[in-house]
Amino acid sequence: MKVADILRVKGGTLFTVKPDQALAEAAQIMADRDIGSLVVMDHGDLVGMLTFREVIVSVVKSGGSLGSTLVRSAMDDHPLTCTLGTELDEVRRMMLERHARYMPVMDSRTLMGVISFYDVAKAVVDSQNFENKLLKAYIRDWPGEDQASASK
Description:
The protein has about 150 residues and is α/β, with parallel strands linked by helices. It has seven helices and six strands, in the order αβαββααβαββαα. It is elongated and about 75 Å long.
């Protein structure tokens, strides 16, 4: 399974912010949309990733307030990315190694979507459930000893 398969099921709604936007505004967007991340874009280029983790770290650093903090100062400016053709096993490995919960999906310099650790886990579980159903159907249709010896 590839990242393109996850995005096909998930859909393509994307939420982005600019690096010079107020962090408080970005946090409000995340809260209003019930999302855990925003892609930071500047002049059409991916420049960072902002997740609830970076927002919390910034709140703690500033003593409980976001004040006039900008997205630029809180974002991860070297986010982990993948492509539409990246295999799901590779994405899982990358996310686990970097403790990343969200990953922008790029096609050259074009942002195609964002996948989350939840999306990856759901795809794995769905795939395993499908395989289990096929195996159970195969076992159910297994010929009994009477049928196996009669066909010889």
